[in-house]
Design a protein that fits this description.
By secondary structure, the chain is α+β, with helices and mostly antiparallel strands. It is built from 27 helices and 17 strands. It has 5 domains: 93 residues, DNA Primase, Chain A, CATH 3.90.580.10; 125 residues, DNA primase, catalytic core, N-terminal domain (DNA primase DNAg catalytic core, N-terminal domain, Alpha-Beta Complex); 130 residues, 3-Layer(aba) Sandwich (Dna Topoisomerase Vi A Subunit, Chain: A, domain 2); 64 residues; 155 residues. It is 50% helix and 10% strand. The structure holds zinc ion. The site of zinc ion (ZN) has 8 residues, from loops.
């Protein structure tokens, strides 16, 4: 067959691929995304690729494979990384090599493109991004190690309930008070300083400064440092809380209480949340995000066992944040401080949610307190008596924000006609912003009933409240934007033909030398090999390589690792999943002998049909060239093929 086998392994050798896979345990990587529980010889958890409430996702450590019995997705370590981050095979290799601290070949540019200019440009951009992550991680390591030298900051963390384990898990640190703590360190280690400037870690000092220092000064000074990680665990930036000086409440040049990294290609705070990396699997597990205001609130909640808590990084909630959360959970609980600022930030968050077509939940904090203060004594860092219970109660009482606001408005409306007018206008404003047409209509109808008003008045309120220049009428509401749903649709089947799926099972379990395949080998069209029974080019390739090593008895002992490394080269998710499923279940007889026989026959039939098509084309070509001799030969062959086809025809047309 002319179908080309996709070959996209770049300059990666099988040995290097294996080295990377040997260095990283799939259980560790999956464990960053899924709360895994030991179940027999395997681990299981809630599938990160489809929405489910009981675990059908399984990881086999001995085979280094994952497989979901619900959505049928499966594969090896590389497959998991490509699927979970939505990145390419080459990007996954880069990611894992970095993680395993394995150097890629010098000619590696992670590039499939053949255009040298494009290659160069993309490689340069990627290189810069990779260096930025490395530099940030380097800085994080510096701050983290500085922490132990600054007992005051360490004590500060301790007093706020952040014990040593949590400090390690979040890799928090301390920026020294000196002007050039980090800068000197970066200079000494020959780090790329202009990039460090771009990332907002340091700043060039005024002229002449070289005389006395490194020529750069630190932007984060005398601060408790919080590295901000993306969902892949890369350090993208920092938040730093001023420690204040011992002598004065506010010392010279101290800057704002909270300082963030500069916006850069790797740090876009409207899309990032502090704690997201550590919280992501718990968010998925609980199908719920707890959104708090501060870094310490995140840490306090994690310490108290609410590990699905995150905070925006010194910015108000954006739609990008909601999109990020929506990849992991349906429900967002806003748990902002119980003060004026917290209350108005909650109102803004609610509106961002409404515009995204999403109802956020709100939990009411006790007046004047933040979550950290509810849970931990702010002097000793000890858990507050009853704090945990109180937090549980607060969270359990979380209600859809829009509905509780409407409740408040209805209450207010009962006081008199003027209050009713104000309440109606306010509620109408929220409803106009809410872009989910179904959710909005349900609230509109309920509100009409509760306020005892006509539809006409309701429409008037919704259309007119914003004035002549605003939204013109309720008949043209804001374009509804569907809210983000589960990241991956639930697939009932992995999408390959059933025969092909069965064939892969038979291949992995029995091998090509087994009876069903040997029977087929006597019935193949000439010039075809057994692996041509597979229509999917990657499966065909897999079968061919599999054959090559099963023919070699010396390799039989390494069967599992061979299978695993063959699997690494499969790019297509469906093909990968099908092979994985076969490997995971090979001990079990998933398909009966009869089913396998039928599947082999069907595939044979299809192979003959393809062969028949080819002859037909050849006949037409011979006819066009007026080659009567060739035409006669081909015609005879065609008739032979038709007989063969008939032999398998009852199985041939698979739905
Ligand atoms: Zn699944």
């Amino acid at each position: 067959m002319s179908d080309p086998t996709p070959k996209k392994h770049g300059r990666i050798s099988a040995e290097l691929l294996q080295k990377i896979k040997d260095a990283v345990n799939i259980t560790d990587v999956v464990g960053e995304h899924v709360v895994l529980r030991k179940s027999g010889a395997n681990f299981s958890g809630l599938c990160p690729f489809h929405s489910e409430r009981s675990p059908s996702f399984s990881v086999t450590e001995s085979k280094q494979l994952f497989y979901c019995y619900g959505c049928k997705k499966g594969g090896d370590l590389i497959g998991f990384v490509t699927e979970i981050y939505g990145i390419s095979f080459l990007e996954a290799i880069e990611d894992l090599a970095e993680r395993a601290k394995i150097a890629l070949p010098s000619d590696w540019n992670g590039e499939d493109s053949n255009d040298p200019e494009t290659q160069k440009r993309r490689a340069a951009a990627r290189e810069k991004t990779a260096t930025a992550y490395r530099l940030n991680r380097f800085a994080a390591a510096f701050f983290h190690s500085t922490l132990s030298q600054l007992p005051a900051v360490e004590k500060y963390f301790e007093n706020r309930g952040v014990g040593s384990e949590l400090r390690r898990a979040f890799y928090v640190g301390a920026a020294p008070a000196a002007w050039d703590g980090l800068a000197s360190h970066l200079v000494a280690k020959k780090a790329p300083l202009p990039l460090a400037v771009e990332l907002g870690l340091i700043q060039p000092s005024q002229k002449n400064a070289q005389l006395s220092g490194p020529g750069y000064f630190d932007l984060f000074r005398n601060r408790a440092m919080f590295p901000i990680l993306d969902t892949r665990g890369k350090v993208v930036g920092f938040g730093g809380r001023a420690m204040g000086s011992a002598s004065a409440e506010k010392s010279e040049g101290e800057g704002p209480k909270y300082l963030n990294s500069k916006e850069s290609t790797v740090f876009q705070k409207s899309q990032l949340a502090f704690g997201m990396f550590q919280a992501q699997k718990h968010i998925r597990e609980k199908n719920e995000v707890i959104l708090v205001e501060g870094y310490f609130d995140v840490l306090a909640l994690h310490a108290a066992g609410f590990q699905n808590a995150v905070a925006t990084c010194g910015t108000s909630l954006t739609r990008e944040h909601l999109k990020l959360f929506g990849r992991f959970a349906d429900k967002v609980i806003v748990l902002f401080d119980g003060d004026k600022a917290g209350i108005s930030a909650t109102a803004r968050a609610m509106e961002v949610g409404l515009e995204a077509g999403q109802i956020l939940y709100g939990a009411a904090m006790p007046e004047g307190l933040d979550p950290d203060e509810v849970l931990f004594s702010q002097n000793t860092g000890q858990p507050k008596p009853g704090g945990l219970e109180q937090m549980k109660t607060i969270l359990a009482a979380a209600k859809p924000l829009l509905d509780s606001r409407i409740d408040d408005a209805v209450q207010y409306a009962s006081q008199g006609p003027e209050q009713k007018t104000v309440a109606l206008k306010q509620a109408a404003q929220w409803l106009v912003r809410y872009t989910d047409p179904v959710g909005r209509e349900i609230r509109v109808q309920a509100l009409q009933n509760r306020l005892g008003i006509s539809r006409q008045l309701m429409n008037q309120a919704m259309g007119v409240t914003s004035g002549a220049g605003g939204r013109s009428s309720s008949s043209t509401p804001v374009t509804p934007t569907p809210r983000p749903v589960a990241p991956v649709p639930i697939l009932i089947h992995n999408g390959l033909g059933r025969s092909e799926d069965i064939l892969i099972h038979a291949l992995v379990r029995l091998g090509l030398n087994s009876q069903p395949f040997q029977r087929a080998s006597q019935n193949l069209p000439k010039a075809n090999a057994l692996w041509d029974l597979f229509e999917h080019p990657e499966l065909r390739d897999f079968a061919e390589k599999f054959q090559a090593y099963t023919d070699n008895p010396a390799a039989a002992g390494e069967r599992n690792s061979q299978l695993n490394s063959l699997l690494s080269t499969i790019q297509d998710s469906k093909a990968r999943s099908s092979i994985t499923e076969a490997i995971m279940q090979e001990e079990k007889t998933r398909y009966s002998e009869e089913e396998i026989k039928i599947a082999v026959d069907r595939s044979l039939g299809r192979l003959w049909a393809r062969f028949s098509q080819q002859i037909k084309i050849a006949i037409a070509q011979a006819e066009a060239k007026k080659d009567a001799g060739l035409q006669a030969i081909l015609m005879k062959e065609y008739l032979d093929v038709q007989r063969k086809l008939k032999e398998f025809s009852s199985f041939y047309d698979e739905a």
